[in-house]
Fold this sequence. Notes:
- It is a single chain.
- The strands form four sheets. Strands 1-2-3-6-5-4 form a six-stranded antiparallel β-barrel.
- By secondary structure, it is of the alpha+beta class.
- It has helices spanning 2-41, 47-57, 65-73, 116-119, 257-270, 285-291, 311-314, 334-342, and strands spanning 77-87, 93-105, 111-114, 124-128, 134-143, 148-153, 175-180, 190-205, 208-215, 227-229, 235-242, 252-256, 276-277, 280-283, 301-306, 322-326, 329-330, 349-356, 359-366, 368-369.
Amino acid sequence: MRYDIKKKTAGILLALSVSTSILAAGCGAAGSKSAANKAETKPAVSQAEQTKQKEAKLSSARNTPIVQAAKKVGPAVVGITNKALVRDYFNRTQLVEQGSGSGVIYSKDGLIATNNHVVAGAQEIVVSLPDGKTYNGKVLGTDPTTDLAVVKIEANEDLPVAEFGDSDSLMVGEPAIAIGNPLGMEFRGSVTAGVISALNRSLDMGERRFKLIQTDAAINPGNSGGALVNADGQVIGINSAKIAASGVEGIGFAIPINEAKPILQELATKGRVVRPYLGVSLLDKNLAQRLGFDLDLRGGMFVVKLFQNGPAYRGGIRPNDIIVKFNGTAVDTVADLRDALGKCQVGEQVPVTILRGDEEVTKTVTLTEMPQQSSQQ
């Protein structure tokens, strides 16, 4: 009898336990469902709203010109991925990424300023916007001489556009902000700040001389083609080069936007830059020194070769002449001549002073357009 009572008691306890578990589980499920419903009905906060909320809490001390400039220009700085065809081990062609850089949207119709070396040799260009959207880009024109290029995208949205400033008004020591994608798209939209270290800095690359803005704002591989911005949020340069040498830090360069604007316009409309052409091959003091020649060039450049029917030949200049002045300016290096030639227009008649033996003679040369793919003066 006692055994039956114990058995019944155990059964009742077991039933109560199972019932309690079911009730607890039911309450838990209902609670979870209720919480889920609450989560579903809670309105999502967009990225723009989050940004506005942060800005509302930002003190005037933190809302510096650098913050404002980054907010203004950052959305217009894009990533540019260069893809090219290569052959694999089995001699099959495939499209692979060969590099990436930055660019600046400067027109509502999708025109983007960047560097020539960012897009050089590309079979396909992919443009990545800061919001993650990507578009196929088309290279409208390139200029290896100034390392500038223009890419165009066909976007189905209103694009953010950067405002160009006046690089001629820059002062040494004023703030400089570099925006770009250093080391690739993983670090897209990086902002670094410094000052304008120097203006009209000449940098010789081969026979080319570049007039650049020097800054200590960090510019790393991948920043090429990005924006150098002033404290007013205006683009005052296109980041182009960085001295990379042991022990050298804080020396970066950008192409002044006032020099870049007419070139970008020509690239967008014509696909190339029309430059005047002289048609001579020269030996200057720098080249003579590199070749080990001890020559007295008498303060000028030795004419080694004339290109057939070129402007110099038609103007009466001959091999073995020494050019000492071009358009009234003394020139004793190829870089000097290129600078003077770059200030002239196609079709312009310019005086060229030469030494022929012991006689100084001035010839008049009518400049023509530089042939495509030509590196001659």
